[in-house]
Amino acid sequence: MKLKRYLYFLLPLFAFLSACDMEKNIEVELPYHEPQLVIECYLEPGKPLRASILETAAYFDEPVPPLVPDAEVVITHNGNRYKLKYKPTVVKTTSRFYTHISDFIMTGKPGDIYGIEVKDGKGRKATGFTTVLATVPIDEVEWKFNDKDKAYLLTSFYDDGSTDNYYRYMTHVDSLSAGSNRDFVTSDQLTNGKRVSYGSAYDYEEGDTIIVSLYHIEKQYYQFLSSVGDAKDANGNPFAQPSKIKSSVQGGFGIFTNLAYDRKTVIIKK
User: Fold this and answer.
1) Is 128 in contact with 114 (CB distance < 8 Å)?
2) How far is the C-alpha of 197 from the C-alpha of 158, rounded, in Å?
3) CA pair distance 259, 213, nearest whole angstrom
4) What is the reported pTM?
5) What is the pLDDT of residues 175-193, one digit of tens each?
6) Domains in the chain, start-ordered, CATH in brackets?
7) Distances (CA, A) of 59 to 8, 16, 72, 175, 247
8) Distance CA 39, CA 231 (A)
């Protein structure tokens, strides 16, 4: 009987709560977003000058590439000015997208300084500079199998102890156009002047073709990549600290740098 009386008491309460409107609409006024120029340009020795010029978009804008067709892009080197043409292109071998290209070949040597200037019809201007680095050669790529016929990879090189150095290490299976299965950046803070080895898990099988790339990168590129990684980790994570991308470009956002790298291709064999 007590249980029945208790249930009879709760029924009107449930009816009252269900009749109440528990939802409340809140309007949030977002600040006006002023689009800014975005530069992504990587100079490679022996390759044409190419760059991607876009602009920032507001959070709720449509997911379309914010192209800037009227952007004028000039790369400078040793007093010379090389103007790039607007010609959106995708390079098949790497799947990389460019908006501006030229026939001029990057011929700079270690220590040379390149600059980039971007202007558009809205009066916006962005600039950046990069100092060409020397390639750090890969000394050895080796692998070892476990009892389950899986192999790990070990890549070794020598760090120059006379300078602060930063590296990006990547491995691809079969093709550079496919996503990398290992990609990280690091400094020589703990390995200055030593023989350095980067390893992997037992990820590979006999017959796999592995493309190993060791990039000697600028500090500004190291900071850019590290901040991009932090921003990705923080996106959608309520417990992560918001992270701002560290740009190397003045008057806009993005990265302008050069790629000095050594690359080896190996086939995993027993």
Assistant:
1) no
2) 9
3) 11
4) 0.83
5) 998 889 999 999 999 999 9
6) 37-131 (2.60.40), 138-243+260-267 (2.60.40.10)
7) 51, 40, 26, 34, 19
8) 18
One-letter amino acid at 178 equals A
Token pair for residue 13?
Answer: 């309460």
Mean pLDDT of 38-52: 96
Q: Token pair 């898990």 is at which residue? A: 201
> What amino acid is encoded at 208 in this protein?
D
Q: What local confidence, expressed as pLDDT, does residue 231 receive?
A: 75
**CA torsion, ordered 175, 178, 157, 185, to nearest 10 deg:** 170
Q: Are strands 48-55 and 37-43 parallel, antiparallel or unpaired?
A: antiparallel
Question: Minimum mean pLDDT among 43-52, 61-70, 169-178: which range?
Answer: 61-70
Residue 236 C-beta-side C-alpha neighbours within 13 Å: 2
Contact 168, 225 (CB under 8 A): yes
CA distances 41 to 48, 95, 119, 192, Å, are: 11, 15, 15, 29
Nearest to 99 by CA among 111, 89, 107: 89
pLDDT of residue 123: 96
Say which amino acid occupies 69: P
